[in-house]
Hints:
By secondary structure, the protein is of the alpha/beta class. It folds into two domains: 4-133, Rossmann fold (3-Layer(aba) Sandwich); 140-211, Sandwich (Jelly Rolls), CATH 2.60.120. It has five helices and 14 strands. The strands form two sheets. The protein has a ten-stranded mixed sheet with strand order 4-3-2-1-5-6-7-14-9-12. Strands 8-13-10-11 form a four-stranded antiparallel sheet, with no helix packed on it.
Amino acid sequence: MGLHAVVVADAPNADLQRYRALLEQADLRIAADGGAHYYHQLDLWPHIVIGDLDSLAATLLEQLQQHGVLIERFPVAKNETDLELALLLAVEHGATEISILAASGGRPDMHLANYLLLAHQRLSGCQVAIRDAGWTIRLLLPGSIELAGQPGLRVSLIPLGQAGGIVTSGLRYPLAHEELALGPARGVSNEFLGTQATISLGSGSLLVFSEDPPLA
């Protein structure tokens, strides 16, 4: 049985209420620095807080320590972002699945860097997804992925470089052993025809954005 870790980053104005059940059921809850504030808003506690702690209020840090939360402090001058440290920590703890929350929005450079962390070599043995505002973002390497949705929900395929041998089923605009290149937006705003879709990739890599079904 795999270990599911949820990592909460510190992008501004994230609404994590829709992900409360995901957080409650996680085997390992990690906060990347100020991501601890989002746990506090939901009256939850992470198991670990990691980062340089420059975005963490002193009063909350004291509460975290009182609740037995493990604090791993790093210097501000470091090669990794706080989110990267949190993801590597999840791998070190044996995570086989990682969900990332509050990683979109705010500074555009951090936003893009967070998405590109999905391609981190140290995460290659995990199923990793960014979940944000009713969307799920995954990295697809050569192979295939199955998506669950509803008719009309959107799917976008964004290549990281040249991606070839793409085959889709269950989408309004199918691709049959075709290529997507970095730059043109051909893969944006496809749609589910039914409740399932499959994306297969022969070479390269794709960011797969899929709109989640509405909450019941």
